[in-house]
């Protein structure tokens, strides 16, 4: 495009095009199957609230836009074919601490595992369970589950003030946008800074990732898990995963547990899990940062991934019920539910064209889970946690149109993603983004 040079002068940052040596690296993503999308150009913002807006040029030329933070969406929400990517990872990855207010201001493009600024951590609850190389922006505005959610809620519950070049949003200033962005994610633009509470660095925690053989141990482990969840404390958590590797005859089941302040495991129900007979005993006290990296090897950069979310009803899950009722569904745009989340993660090394096959595998696994739920889930709950879903973004956005298609498929998916909050989101979208420029993640159709 003849005016790229003029465009580059209008922003505080870099503009990368397919002619630049750094282009291949700049379009790389966590999931290798997202790298095939070729952006016409990439604007990498350098400054925080004073950065110039890169929007006039793509609006003038009807270019589709995507926002890249951590680049951890396997479906391509941070990529776009033949358009402009606003890349926050390189320069908008700062943390600044306001010790007096006990707030940390985090750049959208920062990774969760980027260290402790000034001896603080931006509440451990803002870190994703077991995997710490996701980006702060997408995780936070999409919900943000973590090991300390029982005590502190989701990451999104702790967001105090997102800020951008031209706006600040909180309970008193642009309160409608503050409501919408907490769950509506990138549908309303770029929040270059997120204000979150700080806390002293967490001490060591009792933790484990314990593998078991399948299927001989499954029934007993499920029974014990239900008993734990019936009386789970706010400083405890448990997750399970079934892993099947190509070429191996039988899958394995692993349990991840988190207990804060436990010194003797024979005083807790966790002892009964070991009585079942794991393959190996991995229980130990580890720093919280290490706890948040336990699954990094299973979610390594450079592989192909297909993700699919679903929910599972968990009766008598008292702690979750209490937490959910503390924050009403209408408090923010995020779709809050009492059912627990399940992530189906299909990954492979080579062949980015295998996504269709992976989709069928994921669908089959999700269908198995749903059959076991009977009629206990509504349609929105069946769709799972929004940050876990791969669908929708696979639909190609024509380069000639700045807005995404508003067909029945996408409209239904957004309606399920936000449930009863969707009509209000549509009204706010009409105010802040009537042209539907930001449309790469559960696109909201303006009212």
* Major sheet attributes: 4 strands, mixed
| Overall body shape | globular
Q: On the 0-100 scale, what is the average pLDDT? A: 76
- Based on the structure given, which CATH architecture of the domain at 205-388 is correct? 3-Layer(aba) Sandwich
**SSE arrangement, N to C:** HEHEHEEEEEHHEHEEEHEEHEHEHEHHHH
What percent of residues are in strands? 15-25%
Global Rg: 22 Å
- Please provide the count of β strands: 16
Distance between the termini: 34 Å
What is the tally of helical segments?
14
Strands of the widest sheet, in order across it, are 1-2-4-3
What's the CATH class label of the domain at 205-388? Alpha Beta
| Coarse structural class | alpha+beta
Q: Can you tell me the CATH topology of the domain at 205-388?
A: Vanillyl-alcohol Oxidase, Chain A, domain 3
Regions with little confidence, pLDDT below 50 for 5+ residues: 47-52, 123-128, 315-325, 392-407
* Percent of residues in helices: 10-25%
Cofactor: FAD
Protein name: FAD binding domain-containing protein
Family: Belongs to the oxygen-dependent FAD-linked oxidoreductase family.
GO molecular function: FAD binding; oxidoreductase activity
């Amino acid at each position: 495009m003849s005016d790229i040079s003029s465009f580059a002068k209008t922003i505080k940052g870099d503009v990368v095009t397919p002619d630049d040596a750094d282009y291949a690296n700049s379009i790389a993503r966590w999931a290798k199957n997202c790298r095939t999308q070729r952006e016409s150009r990439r604007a990498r913002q350098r400054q925080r609230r004073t950065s110039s807006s890169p929007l006039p040029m793509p609006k003038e030329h009807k270019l589709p836009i995507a926002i890249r933070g951590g680049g951890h969406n396997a479906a391509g929400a941070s990529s776009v074919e033949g358009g402009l990517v606003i890349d926050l990872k390189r320069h908008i990855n700062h943390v600044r601490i306001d010790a007096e207010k006990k707030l940390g201001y985090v750049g959208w493009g920062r990774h969760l595992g980027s260290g402790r600024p000034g001896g603080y951590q931006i509440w451990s609850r803002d870190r994703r369970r077991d995997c710490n190389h996701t980006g702060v922006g997408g995780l936070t505005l999409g919900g943000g589950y973590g090991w300390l959610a029982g005590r502190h809620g989701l990451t999104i519950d702790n967001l105090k003030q997102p800020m951008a070049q031209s706006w600040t949003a909180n309970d008193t200033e642009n309160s409608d946008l503050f409501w919408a962005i907490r769950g509506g994610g990138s549908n309303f633009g770029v929040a270059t800074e997120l204000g979150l509470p700080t806390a002293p660095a967490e001490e060591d925690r009792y933790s484990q990732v314990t593998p078991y053989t399948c299927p001989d141990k499954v029934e007993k482990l499920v029974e014990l898990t239900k008993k734990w969840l019936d009386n789970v404390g706010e400083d405890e958590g448990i997750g399970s995963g079934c892993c099947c590797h190509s070429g191996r005859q039988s899958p394995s089941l692993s349990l991840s547990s988190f207990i804060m302040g436990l010194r003797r495991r024979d005083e807790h129900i966790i002892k009964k899990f070991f009585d079942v007979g794991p393959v190996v005993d991995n229980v130990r006290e580890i720093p919280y940062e290490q706890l948040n990296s336990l699954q990094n090897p299973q979610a390594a950069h450079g592989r192909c991934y297909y993700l699919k979310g679903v929910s599972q009803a968990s009766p008598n899950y008292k702690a979750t019920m209490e937490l959910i009722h503390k924050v009403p569904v209408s408090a923010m745009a995020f779709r809050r539910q009492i059912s627990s989340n399940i992530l189906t993660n299909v990954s492979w090394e080579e062949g980015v064209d295998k996504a269709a096959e992976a989709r069928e595998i994921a669908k089959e696994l999700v269908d198995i889970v749903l059959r076991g739920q009977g009629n206990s889930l509504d349609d929105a709950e069946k769709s799972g946690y929004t940050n876990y879903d791969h669908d929708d973004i696979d639909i190609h956005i024509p380069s000639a149109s700045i807005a995404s298609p508003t067909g029945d498929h996408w409209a239904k998916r957004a309606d399920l993603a936000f449930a009863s909050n969707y009509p209000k989101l549509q009204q706010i979208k009409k105010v802040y983004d009537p042209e539907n420029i930001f449309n790469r993640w559960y696109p909201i159709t303006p009212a």
